[in-house]
Amino acid sequence: MVKRGLHTRPAVTPERKKFYEKVDPLAVAPLWERLHTIMSKEPRMRAAPHIWKYDQIRPSLMETGNLITAAEAERRVLILENPSLKGETAAADSLFAGLQLIMPGEVATTHRHSPSALRFIVEGNSAYTAINGEKAPMKVGDLILTPSMVWHDHGNIGGEPVVWLDGLDIPLIRSLGTMFTDVYDGGGTHPEGRPPYDNVARFGANMRPMNYEAEGLHSPVFHYPYVNSKKALLELQKADDIDPCHGIKLQYINPNTGAPVMATLDCYLQLIPKKFQTLDYQSTGTWIYSVVEGTGKTIIGENTFEWGPRDNFVVPGWLPHHHVVGSDDTILFSFSDKGTQEKLGLYRERRGNFES
Ligand code: 1HN
After folding, report:
1. How far is CA 203 from the centre of its chain?
2. Where are the domains positioned within the chain?
3. Cβ–ligand 1 contact at 170 (below 6 Å)
4. What separation in Å is there between the alpha carbon of 96 and the centre of ligand 1?
5. Can you name the CATH fold of 50-351?
6. Pocket flag, ligand 1, residue 98 (CB < 6 Å)
7. How far does the centroid of ligand 1 lie from the alpha carbon of residue 293, in Å?
8. Burial of residue 308 (number of CB atoms within 10 Å: 0-12, 13-18, 19+)
9. What pLDDT, in 10s, does the model give residues 303-336?
10. In whole angstroms, what is the distance from residue 162 CA to residue 123 CA?
């Protein structure tokens, strides 16, 4: 008998083997042969922890600028594909991540899709994402949302290449069978909408227009400028209220509800002070990080990942992990499926010193 977790696989006697073969054409199978593979005492993710060092990827990413136009590619993205999920277009069991490049003068035309997406700007300050025609000028460290089924396009009006991290809920949408995509007017661009930063002024100043009625499952703010979110973290350092597992970790929220910014993607920005070592944190959530400022390392089970600005790494669910920060204060962006799991009553976490 093979013992694994809670369940044991019964012996395969010649009589049983014959039975299994006999019933196979009927499209039925004995659950007792499978129980040990599907049920585990605790989560076992298919994705392994992985780090994508920006310096190693950047030359190849820039090469794609000559290899294919944004027009031909539609979206010029190098998928951050987890080696444990090769060919599956995923960074982790439930999340997609990629690095998108847009060259000076290029546009990526308007489309919309049922997967929700976030952009976290990594390099360059001369591009924009337009949401229903309203431009969000991209600055390094800004978070820009393109929620489910909202029209969006990108453009680069300056002289430098611009790169951002794309985060999407593709694996979830795929498994639910809820994938829909539309191309705007056969590959065109949405007409100019409201002026840049309109959404930030309307909903992002802890105020909102009088008699506004909230609708939809996503934040009415779709642009969270880094200057604002970084300022909040720096101000909070004065209170010296450092969470042992997370440092100072702020969640980007939908101001209508206090909920995560989108139904299926939950975003965070955290400051961990220099020389700080966090306590272990274990959660059912999968976390994808983008390092903004500072250097350090993250220890995830057996893996130690050393990181600096613009590196990306993934912490798959239920793996205890902690951060060790170098000689400068560190700022980390991350996104997660935490919000999705919480809606379903499934999120669990453990903090501090525990048996792993
Ligand atoms: C997509 O539409 C974008 O709109 C980025 O910029 C990344 C990855 C998979 C599928 C669609 C975009 C994407 C994507």
Report:
1. 23
2. 2-38, 50-351
3. yes
4. 10
5. Jelly Rolls (2.60.120)
6. yes
7. 26
8. middle
9. 999 999 999 999 999 999 999 999 999 999 999 9
10. 5
